[in-house]
Amino acid sequence: MSKVNLVSVRIITSDIKRLVQFFEKATAITAKWATDDFAEIISGSFTLAIGSTRTLAFFGEGVAEPAANKSVIIEFLVENVDHHYEIIKGLASEIVHKPTTMPWGNRSLLFRDPDGNLINFFTPVSDEAKKKFA
Predict the structure, then answer these.
(1) Angle between helix 16-27 and 81-88 (nearest 10)
(2) Which residue in 32, 53, 111, 117 has a CA-CA distance of 20 to 30 Å to 67?
(3) Sign, Cα dihedral of 27, 32, 35, 39
(4) 74-125: per-residue pLDDT in tens?
(5) From the centroid of its chain, how far is CA 125?
(6) DSSP 56
(7) Which value, to the nearest 10 degrees, does the dihedral of the CA atoms of residues 60, 64, 65, 70 take?
(8) Which domains, and CATH codes, for the chain?
(9) pTM of the predicted model as reported, rounded to 2 decimal places
(10) Which residues contact 117 (CB under 8 A, 6 or more apart)?
(11) Which residues, 6 or more positions from 53, have their beta carbon under 8 angstroms from its beta carbon?
C-alpha cells in the first residue's frame, strides 16, 4: 500500500514578486526563493509554492492560467484570526468575510490575495475543533 501526503499547493502568477511579498506579510514567513520564477512559503506542516507564468513552459501550454481561480480555498491555521485580521485588512484588496465563528467551530477570515485567490485564515474555537487541530 502506498502512502500519499499533500505537501504543497502551487499558485501560478504573472507577478511573482507582488504575490510572494503579499504572503510573506500575511503569514510573517520569509519566502525561500529557488529561482527568480519560483518561491516557497514553508510552514511547519505545509508549503505554499508560488511560480511565475514562465514556469508553465515546463508543463505544457495552457495547463494553468494565473488569476483565474474560483473554486479552491487555500486555508491557513493561525493562532489568533482576529489578530491576523488587523494585518490582512491593510494588505488584501478584498475582505470576503470578516472573522466569524462558523457552525463547525472555527473562527474564519476569508479574503482574496492580489491575484484573486480565496484565502481562509482560521482559528479553532470550539472544543471539538480544538481537538481536531491539537
Answers:
(1) 140
(2) 32
(3) negative
(4) 999 999 999 999 999 999 989 999 999 999 999 999 999 999 999 999 999 9
(5) 21
(6) G
(7) 170
(8) 1-57 (3.30.720.120), 69-134 (3.10.180.10)
(9) 0.91
(10) 11, 69, 72, 74
(11) 12, 13, 14, 66
